[in-house]
Amino acid sequence: MKKLVLLMAMLTLFFTTASIASAHPGRLDNNGGHNCSDKSKAKGLCSGYHYHNGNGGNNDAGSSSGGQSYSTPAPKATVAPVLTKVAVYLNDVKQNYTPSAYMKNGTTLVPMKAIFESLGASVSYDNATKKVTATKDSKKIVIGVGNKTAYVDTNGSASTITLSHPAEIYQGTTMVPLRFVSQALGANVTFDEAALVVYISTK
Known about the structure:
The chain has 4 helices and 17 strands. It is α+β, with helices and mostly antiparallel strands. The radius of gyration is 40 Å and the shape is elongated.
C-alpha cells in the first residue's frame, strides 16, 4: 500500500512538472518574456504573453531591464580660474586698489578706472551699454566689457587697440590687461613675474 501511494505521488509530481515546462516553450525575448503555447492556454497555465524578469517590460531610465541598470550621470562641476594677486607701483609708489590687480590664465589684469584716473584721465561707465569711456586731453578711449577691441579717437583721428584679453567685470570693477595702459595712455609698464609686481611709470 505504501509503495502504491509513493508511486502515485511520483507520477503526480512528474505530470505537474511536465505541464509547467510545456507552458514555457522557446527562449525569452529581449523584454524577458514570451507567448504561451496553445496547449498551455487550454490547460489554464497562462493566457498569453508574459514576463519572467519581473519588470513587466518597463524600460524607464533608472530601472532594471534585461539585467542592466541605467542612471543619469552627474553634471561635471565648472572649475573657476585661479586668480593670483599682483602688486602695483605707480611712479615707485605702491598702490592699494580694491580689487587688486591679478593674473588670470597668464594675463595680468588691472583695475582700469583706478589706474587711468591716477594717470590723469577721467573715466565713466555706461551700465546700459556695458562700455567704459576714458578721456585725457584730446584723446578718447572706449571699450566694451567682454570685448578685445578698444576704440581710440585722438583729435578726430580714429584707431583701434587689440587687447590680449577681453575687458571684464570683477567685484564691480572693470579690469583690463596691463599692456592696455601703455597702449592707451603711453605710460611705461613692466611686470616682474617672479615677484608678482607691476611697475607703471610716467616719468
